[in-house]
Amino acid sequence: MKTDSFSTHFLLHAAALVEERLRERLSEVGIRPRQARIIQALSRMEPTSQVSLAREFRITPASMSTMTVRLIEAGFVSRGPHPDEARSNVLRLTERGRELLSDIHAAWNDIDALIEEQLGAQNAETLTRLTHELRDGLGGHVPGARSTEASAAGKELS
Fold first, then answer.
1. What pLDDT, on the 0 to 100 scale, is given for residue 146?
2. Which residues of the chain have pLDDT under 50?
């Protein structure tokens, strides 16, 4: 049986190639794709706990800790005391982290343009719609988007 007869093979291979291009593009500003996603989510959620951030990405708090420590050491994120819970900490973007958001968005736009160049505008739009539907259908969501809605409804930090 040939692996190229499975749709999943094409999807995974294309995703790996797109991520490789994004990794190359983001290396210009000194971060990786997952770090960019964390910075973007944190911009929606801040201030937030590391546990809440881990929950949004469906990873363990220990894994998120490893990633946030690197972002803290790079000066993009700060950790400070929770305003209401003395034994808890919250994460926030630093000014440097906020400035990085425009570079992240520019990189994502560049990759979107690359996809459109390869597929054409209409096919790129269809791909976006279908991958959005697939992500949502599999239970995915935009990290931080739910927290933003919850905060707007007046719910507390977790």
1. 63
2. 147-158
Q: What tokens were used for 158?
A: 């977790």
pLDDT at 20: 97
Is the pTM here over 0.90, yes or no?
A: no
CA distances (Å), origin 154, targets 96, 108, 151, 157: 28, 31, 5, 10
**100 touches 39 (CB < 8 A):** yes
pLDDT at 152: 41
